[in-house]
Design a protein that fits this description.
Oligomer: single chain
CATH class: Alpha Beta
Order of helices and strands: EEEHEEHEHHHEHEHEE
Shape: globular
CATH architecture: 3-Layer(aba) Sandwich
Structural class: alpha/beta
Distance between the termini: 20 Å
Largest sheet: 6 strands, mixed
CATH topology: Rossmann fold
Helix content: 25-40%
Strand content: 25-35%
Number of domains: 1
Bound molecules: adenosine-5'-diphosphate, magnesium ion
Length: 230
Amino acid sequence: MSLIVAKSLSKTYATDSVAVKALQEVNFDIEVGAFLAFVGPSGSGKTTLLNLIGCLDKPTSGSLQVAGVDVLKLGRRQAAEFRGQNVGFIFQSFNLIAVLTAFENVEYPLVMVQELRPAERRDRVLKALKAVGMLEQKNQMPEQLSGGQKQRVAIARALVTQPKLVLADEPTANLDHETAYMILRLMKQMRDNFGITFIFSTHDTRIIGEAEIVCTLEDGKLLRCEAGHG
Ligand code: ADP
Ligand code: MG
C-alpha cells in the first residue's frame, strides 16, 4: 500500500536575484512501513523534499499525496492539523526544549491533544521513553544528556503522537559513527515494532547502508531509488 505518492513534484525558491530550482519533476511512490533514505550532497534538495512531505511547505507544481490526502489542497491550519495527526519530526540538532526535562519534552506534542486524560498522557510518554531506552533519564534536562541520548528523546517525542510517518532530516549529522549507527538501528526497531514508516535524509556514507531503500538526489533531480543493504 502506498503511503506517499509524488508526481512531477517541483519546488522553486524565488529569491531576489535568482530562482533556485530546488526540486525538479520528482516522482516516487513510498510504501507503508518503508525504511527509506534520501541521499545526496549538500544542496541537492533533501530538506526541501522532506519539508514538502511533512506539509511544512508547498510545492511549486506537481502533485503529492500523503496517507491518502492531497496535501496541496490543505490550508495552513489543515496542514498543521494533518502534521499533528500523521507526522513526527526528528532534527539534526535534536531541537529539545532546554528548560524541559526529557519527560516533558516527550510530553510536549501531547499537551494540545485535548481528548487525552493526564493519566493516559503520562502512560504514553513513559511508553515512548521506554521504547527508546530512556526511562531512567526521564527527569534529566537536555544539557545533562549526550548527543545520542538527546536524539533518543527526540525519537520518543516523534513517536508519542503515534504518527503514520516519521521524517528525520540528517538525524545523525551531529553524532559520532557508533552513535549514528545505534540511532539508525533504533529507528528501524521502531519501524518494526510499531509499523511506522521512517524517511530520513543523509549524506553520511557510513549509515546509508542501513536504509532498506536508498533514493539519490542530485541538483534537485531524483536519479534513482534502489534497494539498500539494511
Ligand atoms: P539539502 O537539504 O540537500 O542540503 P536543500 O533542500 O536545503 O538541500 O536546498 C536545495 C537548494 O535550494 C539549494 O540550492 C539551496 O540553496 C536552495 N534553498 C533551500 N532553501 C531555500 C530558501 N528558503 N530560499 C532560497 N533557496 C533555498
Ligand atoms: Mg538539508
